[in-house]
Specification:
Blueprint: H1 3-15, H2 25-34, H3 48-52, H4 62-84, H5 97-116, H6 143-161, H7 168-199, E1 206-210, E2 219-225, E3 228-235, E4 240-241, E5 248-249, H8 255-263, H9 265-273, E6 277-283, E7 287-294, E8 307-313
Antiparallel strand pairs: 1-2, 2-3, 3-4, 3-5, 6-7, 7-8
Length: 319
Amino acid sequence: MDNITHSLTGWALGQAGLKTRTRKGLAVLILGANMPDIDVFFGWVGWEPLAMHRGFTHGLVGGALVMPPLLAGLLWLLDRWQVGRGATFTSGLPMRAGWLVALAYLATLTHPLMDLLTTYSVQLLSPFSSAWFHSDALFIIDVWLWLLLAGSIAWSRVRERKGKPWRRPVQAAIAVMLVYIGLNLLISQRAYAAVRQWAGGRPIDALFASPPPLESWRRRLVWREGDCYRWSRYDPLGAGLGPVTNCRPSLLHDPLVREALQRDPALARFLRWSVLPLAEVERSRCSVKVSIGDARYQDFGSRSRLRRETIVPTGRPGC
């Protein structure tokens, strides 16, 4: 998910009442909900980390065990420094270290769980396994969740400032969010079943059902059969499974693609990140352009929106 959704999730937990458990409760919930994305600062070029991360810090070891006490410890040290300088706190809450750690764990755990709901996938078992997990319930930026969470937080804040009961609006919004996620999980499961019914006895190695940005009940489907990919659509309110494309070869075993992977380490890194890698080869007299994209992010013959390219010289005379 995007960081606005992660932040709203942490803020909603705080505004539902958890922020009153300790001083800096709201801060630890919002920061913890975003903390696994710290891995974007360890990428090799400016934009790629935003597309390529989701390894150790998003796993159950890094994201759920290692980082929460680190975050809680940093906030506790900040609080001690502020107290030493004679700072006063408008919340009037005491510092409860145990609750600070508990809220850090809760908030940080929401991050991989929310990312698990998208087709971007997460490596939950990293560093022990590079396997990707996904459930395809939400688009990476779900505006309906934005409106639901932001609206309920704003309403709750207004009531809080007026001295009225303020927890209930956000608590109700969290309940609605869970129902919304559950319905979308059910739609994706029905989409999976429709594809497998269409495939009959043919094995499907990987299957993704991506919701579009606004029409969250629909699904854009892509799956791998052996060494090729197919695309389709699914609409539970319409005709169900739509037309299915011919199987498009991945070309990963093409000798030119293998040579390009040996020549370009960045291309090899992209391949390790890509869950559904799909190569393209464009030949000219003096060079061959090899690109690798991800079939999750292209549709019905289009080019992948996330891709990496490299040039392999042909070595012909005169080049």
